[in-house]
Design goal:
The longest helix has 41 residues. The chain folds into two domains: 155 residues, no CATH class; 235 residues, MetI-like (MetI-like fold, Orthogonal Bundle), CATH 1.10.3720.10. It is mainly α and 462 residues long. The chain has 16 helices and two strands.
């Protein structure tokens, strides 16, 4: 039985435990005059039984899955012929790699010897034994837990308290995983960035005007000196994000004002879901649209006006990115505008203000902190976009403010530096982590500012 099949079986036993525990609770309640005789609801008794039936067995399965590869590998190594065990550890590791490839059906590094084939057969036998033992033990633990829960269910059992304790620890575990994941990402990027800055000065990276991360592999290689000035990348990122916000901010904001204050209910019920569809379109689709439709149109228009327009331009990427961010801005702004108390509108109308005056002089100033927070979050979204820039703006690190020229961004260069067979210790590869660190700091600052503004807004009106 595979691990996935076993996991589904354990879930089925948990469901059966829930139904059995709930049924037993109803039976106990019927003997004592009704559900009021129970400490908890019948559903809590069902969850209590499901927890006992599922959680210990699933934890055992996860632990078994963690130690299984190492355990089987050690048993196979222990049964290898003495002349193979006497080899250096590196050579034994290569032989074990051939054994694993032979077991899964991959190509081995050389001719398969009789010892390697015997070890592969031994590995398969151990896997079969392991599969049977894992299934038997896990199902046995689940059945034992279900039986124990069945015997413990009594009217005075505080099932709800037990279920809530398990739920609390589950939430704590999820939060801990999220926190440790974030800390791990930050530390991994930080440590690799420190290694990069040990080879390239921080001042050159932050203030250099030339980006050409092609480091030399040999001393006599031409054109491989490497330049790690990231200012062109920062400028390209700011240029494309600025163009995107020039499109998304006014269109999204005006759309939100119309839907919140002017649109009839029938129009809003149709327009709001249509805007949300834009948010669900994959960014690669926007990239195709930018590369195949928008960029050629901009180039033809520019050439008709006598301007020199690159086939891949910041303007094309920025315009399409702005269209992609419109639902983000409009949705946040719409929620903020609708959160303004109706009493403020009624007060303005009572003083004789028109709907337009109320919107401009009362609603918009009251919602402005939340709108600013939403715009800052949209800027973070624009800075982190990659696919549209790759397909519509190009890979050229040009230091220019001309939106008709090809530029690149920080995220695009991170992808470019890490694609292919690269030497991980070279400055070229480590530069991706330094760029990621800068991008992380910038987006973190923008998000903190946005959340601070929104928090002040909520404190004012809640």
């Amino acid at each position: 039985m595979t691990a996935s099949t076993l996991f589904i079986a354990l879930l089925a036993i948990s469901v059966a435990g829930f139904l059995a525990g709930r049924k037993r609770a109803f039976a106990l309640a019927a003997d004592r005059g009704g559900i009021r005789a129970l400490h908890s609801l019948p559903g809590h008794y069902g969850l209590y039984a499901a927890i006992w039936a599922g959680i210990p067995a699933i934890l055992l399965l996860l632990f078994w899955q963690g130690i299984e590869p190492t355990l089987i590998s050690n048993l196979v190594v222990r049964d290898l012929p003495p002349e193979i065990q006497a080899l250096p550890p590196e050579r034994v590791g290569l032989i074990m790699n051939d054994v694993k490839n032979l077991v899964v059906g991959n190509i081995v590094s050389g001719n398969v010897s009789a010892d390697v084939r015997a070890a592969a057969d031994h590995w398969q036998r151990l896997e079969r034994i392991n599969s049977v033992a894992r299934a038997a033990l896990s199902i046995g633990v689940a059945a034992l837990g279900l039986l124990l829960a069945w015997r413990l269910i009594r009217p005075e059992l505080r099932a709800r308290n037990h279920v809530e304790i398990v739920a609390k620890w589950f939430l704590i575990a999820c939060s801990t995983i999220a926190i440790f994941t974030t800390v791990g990402i930050v530390l991994s990027v930080l440590f690799e960035s420190i290694r990069f800055f040990q080879q390239v000065p921080v001042t050159e990276f932050l203030f250099g005007l030339e980006w050409s991360p092609q480091t030399a592999i040999r001393a006599d290689q031409v054109g491989g000196s490497g330049a790690f000035g990231a200012v062109p990348l920062f400028a390209g990122t700011a240029l494309i994000a600025g163009i995107a916000m020039l499109v998304a901010a006014p269109v999204g904001l005006m759309t939100a004002i119309y839907l919140a204050e002017y649109a009839p209910r029938s129009v809003r019920s149709v327009a709001k879901p249509l805007l949300e569809i834009l948010a669900g379109i994959p960014t690669v689709v926007y990239g195709f649209f930018a590369a195949l439709v928008v960029a050629p149109e901009i180039r033809e228009l520019g050439e008709s006006l006598g301007m020199n327009v690159a086939s891949e331009s910041a303007l094309a990427a920025g315009l399409v990115m702005g269209v992609m961010i419109i639902p983000f801005v409009s949705s946040l702004s719409d929620d903020v505008i609708n959160a303004v108390p109706q009493s403020m509108r009624d007060g303005a109308y009572a003083l004789g203000a028109t709907k337009s005056e109320t919107t401009r002089q009362v609603i918009f100033p009251a919602a402005l902190p939340g709108i600013v927070g939403g715009l800052l979050l949209a800027v973070s979204r624009a800075i982190g976009e990659t696919m549209i820039v790759v397909m519509a703006a190009g890979l050229s690190a040009n230091l220019t403010a001309n939106p008709l020229q090809a530029v690149t961004t920080v995220t695009v260069q991170i992808v470019t530096l890490l694609v292919g067979d690269q030497e991980f210790d070279s400055p070229k590869t480590l530069a991706a982590f330094a760029l990621g660190l800068v991008l992380f700091v910038v987006t973190l600052v923008l998000n903190v500012i946005a959340l601070t503004v929104v928090r002040k807004y909520r404190e004012q009106y809640e």
